[in-house]
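S., here's the first fold you wanted:
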Amino acid sequence: MSQTTWFIIAIVIYMATMLAIGYWSYLKTDKYDDYVLADRGLNPFVAAMSAGASDMSGWLLMGLPGALFVTGLSELWIAIGLLVGAWANWKWVAPRLRSYSEVANNSITLPSFFENRLRDRSRALRIISALIIIFFFTFYVSSGMVAGGRYFEATFGGEYLSGMLIVAAVTVAYTFVGGFLAVSYTDVVQGTIMFASLIIVPVMALIALDNPSDIWTWASSNDYGPYTDGIGNPTYFNMVAGVSAAAIIGNLAWGLGYFGQPHIVVRFMALRTPAEAKQGRWIGIGWMFLCIAGATMTALVGTVFFSQNPDIAVTDRFAFETIFLDMGRLLFHPLIAGLVLTAVLAAIMSTMSSQLLVVSSSLVEDLYKIVAKRLPAEKVLINLSRGAVVAIALIAGALAINPSDSILGLVGFAWAGFGAAFGPLMLASLYWKRLNAAGAIAGMITGAVVVFAWGTFGGSEIIYEMVPGFIAATAVLVVVTLLTSPPAEEITSEFDQAVRLSEVLRTDEDMDVETAAAKVKGVSEA
């Protein structure tokens, strides 16, 4: 059989596995809360792997190795920012959000949590945050479809549109059928594939080198890839060479975005107990660190691997983003290589499915249920969510037919939008008792508008839009809150209750949430 045939077999096996998990999840999804949040039943391993896989898109396997290969270790600043930001998110947001979201009227989406936390009777906070989610996630989902189309184009030499439609159809199918449970468990499989591939490929390539130790010196003194003038890239191992302070700050600022990413923080809300956030943190950050290390080693080994044998070359001669895929094709049997290639597909689909579900939840939970005169039956709500998944996929697909921006550009825009609009608000909601609805709304709108304006009018060439957006949102949130009326006593009392619940569950990890909540409530009433 030809190499392409083996690749197709591997892709079919992968796609069939995703659909099978979707069907299994469908059999276990009876209630609306099951479809939206898996009835808060995720164990820490599944939550951590799901958060990681839905976070890390094709950038981890293609964009990061390619950038490190071409430029050098100065490209690691984004990875460092993301690693620190993810750790901080698990440490400070995960346990308290899990407690508070249940105390605040069992909130199952981010907009509903903000509204319940601040008792916003106007519904403006919930509606505006839902609209922000729908707006930015439509672009985010579109970027996944663009990546899927380009993946098929590069791997099989097929048509972009056909590949985009195949990836979109399978992702929509298992999300449509199985909801949050399907998305979470497919994320586990996809995260495992990404992890295994990023470890195996650079290790096998290292073994194939004549002198493995060359990886620590080759790039700085020998020709490779885009460097053909006989001196290589002398600053390859220098993390600050040729990089401005603004660029370093902007790259590190990607980590700030974690606090406001709805598709990531919703995993915290789905944990069985707040105490399990600690275990989830070590699993998630360990997975992320090893994946980034694997991507870095892919670039390092690649500088020697593709120079050692003049008969082989990187397919992408511009951004060199195919070095991971090219290594996989060259080192393994076509079936194994095909399974390695699915790692990129897994990264794309895991992110896309999470985003589709969050958007559908916002449409139904945060917009439809507000205007509905009567609350529909559970099955009706589930079917409405499924319809919303399809609707958003169609809109995102229409945008992806003729993409006007790069994949990283689309992702960076959406990431900054969520980080600036929801990041300061999330931290203030969990840790500042004085916060009120006016400050929350003003800060959230400011963050979204500044990011949109900064990116639209060229400010991102100066510094990543996350930086001015996050700073402006924080400043406006604080100022408006202090200039307006303090929150009512019921709001501050509930804040104290949520804090105590988090502390009780932290000190007694074996206690279930219901028992702890009853204990805290009893103390409050006394």
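And the second, which I think is the more interesting of the pair:
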Amino acid sequence: MDVLELALKKAFIDQVTPSDKLNPKFIINNPKKHDFLLTTLQNDFKQCRSFFISVAFITQSGLNAIKAQLADLAQKGISGKILTSTYLGFNQPEVFESLVNLPNVEVRISEKEGFHSKGYLFEMEDHHSFIIGSSNLTMSALKQNYEWNVKLTSYDNGEMISSIRTHLEEEWAESTPLTNEWICEFKRYYQPVINVQMIHQMTMTVNEDRQDYIVPNKMQQVALKNLKDLRGTKAKRGLIVSATGTGKTYLAAFDARQFKPKRMLFIVHREQILKKAMASFKKILGGPDSDYGILSGNSKEMTAKYLFATIQTVSKDTYQEQLGAKAFDYVLIDEVHKAGAASYQKTIDFFEPDFLLGMTATPERTDGFNIFELFDYHVAYEIRLQEALEEDLLCPFHYFGVTDYEKNGLMINETSDLSYLVNQERVSFLIEKINYYGCYGNQAKGLVFCSRKEEAKELSHLFNKKGIPSSYLTGDHDLDKRELEITRLEEGKINYIFTVDIFNEGIDIPKVNQIVMLRNTESSIIFIQQLGRGLRKDDSKEFVTVIDFIGNYKNNYMIPMALSGDSSRNKSNLRRDTIDVTYMSGLSAINFEQVAKERIFSSIDQAKLDSMAELKKHYIALKNRLNYVPGLLNFEEQGSLDPLIIIGKEKTYYQFLTRIGEAEGSLSEMEEIALKFVSVELLSGIRPHELVVLAHFFETKRKTLSYQEMKQLFKEKDIYFTEDDAQSTVKVLSLSFYEAVQQRNYMPGQLFRIEDDCLVVTDKLKQFWLNTYFNRLMLDVIETGLVKSQRYMGHTPLEIYQKYRRKDALRLLNMDFKQNEQGIGGYTFSNHHFTIFVTLDKGKDFKASLMAYEDEFLDESTFRWFTKSPRTINSPEVEILKQPDDWHIHLFIKRKYSQKDNEIDFYYLGEMTPIKETIEQKQKPTTDGKLKNVVEMDFKLANPVESNMYEFLIKVIED
């Protein structure tokens, strides 16, 4: 039966019909599962040859969500049509201005009364797909609202697609082309029937600055309770870590209100912040104006009950002596990560308040100063970017990773000459991209972060020459000049301020609606700081546009790291986070142009993310935060570094600590082998069974555990298990599961043996238990593995898209492990499980095989595979695959992007079935020119590979 016929039969006649391509799909936004209509649309845009969208309502944010895909289509010469309306006055003039500037999209306006259609039609290579339902082209409809949509597919001669096409062509013929003249006329008479701004305000968090009575938001409520509890422990200092724009100043005022200070001192590092901070405190604390005063270069109101001071002034001996050390019982320091400076140290040492509160968005410092130590390691509350977006505390942002200027194969990099950065062609290129991706309301109020002072100055000059009012600011400009340019930007007198470094932090310009990055990503911290300059909510904007011009920079790998919040430094994760960006919360979105993705991938390939220098840097940062030698569990809980990276490098955490001179005890050679076994084999947490048994032995120090007691333990811990799982657990812990070489290597540290259907501790383990440092290190590994195990569902041995090593897959499937992993090679079979491990794109210089295998995806649900050589149609494994019957055939894939990759994990793609008519014996040449027999066959996957994963696995990256 034809593929589409099978799909329709499965959807509308019999759901058990074996079909996995072109299936109809019911689409509902599910933020918890990161499953959105937007993802389906974006993937269809990537594959289409043309498109036709017919929607009543379009917002700039909805249009932004597909702009990167439209830009990639334009590069391929692919165009499409959008039909929309003026129904209810929902579509604002600005969205029509954005639409008319799309180079590969023809737009028309339907004059039909009550036009309310919502459909997306895509012409693919061999079929059409169309999505019809309730979703307009708005960000809420694409990603957040409860919407119903159905995706169907059809061949060209299908009646449904023919009817839709005919109808669209008729509607198109009767509609009005969108032109600049039409927009000018529309603006003259535009009057929304539905008040769009009112709708926006109803769906946004209330702007605190507009309220007479202010109440704490969710974040502030929790932080206030934590601060109160902290002071209840007699703590004298506390730290708040809160993303820019989440209301730190109001939080400080709320805490001052609950503290009820006799006198309060609020310290900032810039005078321009003082008046705003004081106004916020007045709203919360109330009282006469005479209670409030400023101590700065321009004001000396030193007797005020609530004193707001700049650090430059309050740190001077004259003023400290006049105030006195005990003048304030409550002191707050804003942007406290600057406290490593001498002026801050001097001030903190001088005043003796009952409580000192520090606030920062970025406590991790590149200058080595330990903020956590300064506040006695008391972090009262912490909320980072992703959490703040989830709580709707920040303005949504649309991030576009776009390719920077390139000419004659020469790309922007860290060493590019200034003349290349500011030549006329690059300026025109930048302006074209900035205009294409635009901003809310189409009137830019943007900050442009440059790499050099000369670049900022010259680009500002060239933008002005192009008719785009701009200015530039660097560390050379004084405070008055900075405040002047910020005011000009907010009032719309200029569109851009080009800057170097000075706006990374500590500046509040709520009306900024566009961030442009023209520099190398120096660190994840600075990236988030610069991104955060636009995230403060303001009535003037619904979202912020972030345009990141990605050159050929070594640090490009930091971009997905910063956006996803994944600091694990796992290369495979970073690649996936570049392609599958559904992790972004709320109405924010991330899009990379194709070439920009390739530059990030190239950076990931080259980066040394597990170097000892990198690992030690993360270790020191975490130790500074905790004030003690961190364990693997600390790394896991803080999300600062994946413990598996350390173990992959050093085999045990003890070995790592010894290497950097931080070990707090010593292990014997046998103890270290035992620790290595648990670390290397079990830390990943792919199943909890072995770890639970180990924890039980180490906590109780009992000597034996029977099968029955083990199963009872699993029940008590609410762990799903089968009889095979229990037997496998015993085999693993006794080492009998492992192949001979590994078993021999681990035997000196053997922890258990099997005796009379019991797991029995060895004499070695009894001896090991006498070493408290060994116990501590071992429990740390066990507890970390148990935390990791929570990401697995547990009721199935393997989960689709999770990563497994070969031996882990065999362990979970209770298969035999009789040869080492290299010996397993591409596949092995036992216990009615046939596991196939494929490394795609092994590279031109791959030397591990005598023969070049051409395993490949034919599409999302079909995989072509070759046996080892020499094999014939009658070889044992082929006999199994010809008649699989009760055999389960599993596919594991990893992608090798460069020879530097040392990934050993494979993504599990589920079970598959051989297509019997494709099984064929062939001859293939070896590297020495001989021909050897192999068998080729195609498989049908039970679950088609999801689009983002498919792109991730098959994507060809050019060096």
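Why I say that: The chain has five domains: 3-199, 210-389, 395-557+580-591, 612-789, 803-954. The radius of gyration is 31 Å.

Talk tomorrow,
H.
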